[in-house]
Structure prediction request, 432 residues.
Amino acid sequence: MLGGGSFTAQNKTLPGAYINFVSAANSSSALSERGIVAVPVELGWGPEKQVIELTAEDFSRDMRKVLGYTRDAAEMRNLREIFRKATRCLLYRLNGGVKAQNDLAEARYSGSRGNDLTVVVTANVDVKSSFDVSTLLDGREVDKQTVAGIGALKDNDYLIWKKEVVLELTAGKPLSGGNNGEEVKGADHSGFLDAMESCSFNILCCPVTDETTKKLYVEFTRRMRETAGVKFQTVVYRMNGADHEGIISVENKTEEEEAGLVYWTAGAEAACEISKTNDNAAYDGELTIDVAYTQQQLSDSISAGKFIFHKVAGEIRVLLDINTLTTFTEEKQEEFSSNQTVRVLDQIGNDVAVIFNTRFFGKVPNDDSGRVSLWNEVVSYIKQLAGLRAIEAVSTENIVVTRGENKRAVTVQLPVTPVNCMRQLYMTVVVE
Prediction:
């Protein structure tokens, strides 16, 4: 893994891109894909303890063989919330369990969903001494094979056949004994976070209410952003006191699942364009949201760095697209509390790191010509952002690339001013 993160002195050991973000007063220092959410899930079907990558298109198709259910099933509600906005999802099944089975087969995956599988064996009407072997899920056929004996059966998306038994006619032989294993613990979430270290995503979703586990996600986010140089934000439920631009704390609870709103928020934040904001974004999900807040409570929530929904003109909307940063310094001033600002800076950090690591690291000499080449790449990239109205136009004269303190290091001075969408209107009407 390449080095990365922020720097206070040019003394790093690992090769990589080290990038500081500070406010303008102390400024020092091809667009990647957005819309990617990483989320841990508890399921009754699917691969255990590994990353499953799904696109929005994948999710719109038959998900039974991968996740055990079609997209319209109640069990898929949280993923539907994410995919209302997100384009890609990195799923990780936290739980294990026991595989369902009967005397003919064993479920491909552990979990309670295997108990909904049934094997039907009938005589083939065309081929003497042959059998039609059907696999049913919820009574619906998902696989059918015509064979002379069980040894000829091929494992399918749902079943692993037991080769040592004899096929006999049966109107239906259900599987049983499958379960979802023990209660998910902090160690399971740690396994998920470990797996995420080598993945690229925009938003990490923390769908828990346990304070200890939430803190695990917060510390992971801090470490990855500040030490590993991986720029993303994490959506958590009611994480008071996080005080960090990388943490978005959703305040509202829902009837269906207390922390359920983190899923929609994660998808919306991941998919939001860097030149846009989720300020005043309308909620279009399935959950029943508690929005019983007074104006004073809404005002206080902003001061406390809470991402909160409210009801306006009959619609439930995001109040402000903010994160938990509430302690402002000379290096991180109030603009860092805006998720739009953070999106822009994260995009720059990730993209410039990719440019350097893929096109320059170990390939281009650190001489005048090499540094001019890097300068051209940075300038071209920054012009793209300005063209998208994500940042104010930057004078190329202010972008400076120089040799670092040793002959292998290169420094880039890149002053940028992120653009934020309009938030407040102050108007004076003069009657004459």
Summary: The longest strand covers residues 140-147.
